[in-house]
Amino acid sequence: QSDASWRIDRIHARIVDIPTIRPHKFSFGAINRQSPVIVQLWLANGACGYGEAATIGGPSWNEESPESILLAIQQYLAPAVAGADARRFADHIARFEAVCKGNTFAKSAVEMALVDAVARSLGVPAWQLLGGKRIERLPLAWTLASGDSQRDLDEAEKMMQSRRHRLFKLKIGARSPADDVAHVTRIARGLDGRADMTVDVNQAWDGNTARRYLPQLVEAGVTLIEQPVAKWDVQALREATQSLGAAALIMADETVCSAQDAFMLASQRACHVFSLKVAKHGGLLRTREVAAVAQAAGIGWYGGTMLETSLGSAASAHVFATLSDQHHGCELFGPQLLVDDIVEQPMAVRDFELQLPDGPGFGVVVDEKRLDRFDRARAGLTPT
Ligand code: MUC
Ligand code: MG
């Protein structure tokens, strides 16, 4: 192909609204739908790549929202790379940085579409452009977050029976810490050692609460504790990491976004595991940078999610496939939490493990009809 065929011809972005199968409850609120931003990027050679960025509860997980992502892409990121050679990923990332600070979710969606378009043009899987595949499958977690212990347990039973999940993440932090510990203990009794149990506090506790209640969570059988304290409270995260015994690990999520965050946490030995998420790191290549810091520091990684559709989940799976074997599984279950998907065939789950996909591109076929059906602009829905 000639150099001209790699020119970025057009970039289009839109918000789609897809309801969840049940309310999903977090320390900071509940969601009933996801509103990912879907990017389509065409090359002069006719190839089209897709990207996705999903937030949770508008701008309540972090600062970005579907509306801010759409605006950043349309006003700043798309014009910054229009007409350029799509293959120059590192150069595009530098241009994004120059025209737009932060806004990592928005950047990740465009970078994804670039990688997908180039990989499709070459007829190769995206993982081939990201370092090569090393991992074929990852244990797949499911999040129990209905807000009701019995309903959570019934859900866990179903997931175990269908051999989809035996790794459960409990969302806590909305209720009092004592109530949360009681809830975790009820679930642990019900699971009776047949599954692994983790919790995500989503920053809800302060240092004193963590000091008092983390040992009780470990006592109840929790093996991995995600972001128990505020994202800025590295001191409390570090204290938790250094005071908990060998029975449980501390995982940073909101605290670890940039490679600089990763370096700071690693040098302070403030956590045992990083939750990797393509959106918060600012793209697939940036995710590899954060993973490289983890590997250099002897920190494990976990394949995190922002509850993307099968498109964003497959893109994440491609970069996770290239990483080290020092992992704690993944949680790319977003598609299962949504009433519908935007691809023809979701990634396969067999024997409790997500089968990491091959190409071309991200190895999923986007269904344009369903994209149109959920398109917010077409449905005339107002943001929530
Ligand atoms: C988070 O903070 O990890 C991931 C799974 C889930 O249920 O919520 C997300 C966000
Ligand atoms: Mg989290």
Provide an overview of this structure.
It is a single chain. With 384 residues, the chain is α/β, with parallel strands linked by helices. The chain has 15 helices and 16 strands. The strands form 4 sheets. The chain has an 8-stranded parallel β-sheet with strand order 7-8-9-10-11-12-13-14. A 3-stranded antiparallel β-sheet has the order 1-4-5. A 3-stranded antiparallel β-sheet has the order 6-16-15, with no helix packed on it. The termini are far apart. The protein has helices at 66-81, 89-99, 104-122, 126-129, 149-161, 177-191, 207-220, 234-243, 259-267, 278-281, 284-297, 310-320, 334-337, 368-374, 376-379; strands at residues 8-15, 18-26, 29-34, 37-43, 48-53, 137-139, 142-144, 167-171, 196-200, 224-226, 249-252, 273-276, 300-303, 327-330, 349-350, 353-355. Bound molecules: [(2S)-5-oxo-2,5-dihydrofuran-2-yl]acetic acid and magnesium ion (MG). [(2S)-5-oxo-2,5-dihydrofuran-2-yl]acetic acid binds next to loops.
Brief account:
This protein is α/β, with parallel strands linked by helices and 384 residues long.
Tell me the β content. Answer: 15-25%
| Bound ligands | [(2S)-5-oxo-2,5-dihydrofuran-2-yl]acetic acid, magnesium ion
What is the tally of beta strands? 16
Helix % is 40-55%
Rounded to the nearest angstrom, the radius of gyration is: 20 Å
Whole-number average pLDDT? 97
Estimate the global geometry from the Cα principal axes. Answer: globular
Q: Note the total helix count.
A: 15
